[in-house]
Design goal:
By secondary structure, the chain is mainly α. Helices cover about 70% and strands about 0% of the residues.
Length: about 100
Amino acid sequence: MEHHDRQYYARILDVPLDELNTRRIENITYNLSRFLVAWNKSDSNFSRYKTTWINALYNSPDRAITEAIDHIIQQPSQFPPSLGEIMDVVKQRVKTLGLG
């Protein structure tokens, strides 16, 4: 991740630059791309949702995020779930995995 990107995320997450978890941001970004592919969304959706997802999921464990997205992608549904619904699944995974 480039330095200016790190500065941007540190600012929006209100985290000191030296404490910014870039691996977590990369994991959230990866899972967002998986989610959008599963729902056949365009690349323009990616840039539109990225900051919101990072802001909402940054404090969640990587494993819980990945397992939640795996679960959501595998569920049949006509419409993609909202970020709030995704957060609920992430919270369930945190409890199930004993991560929080």
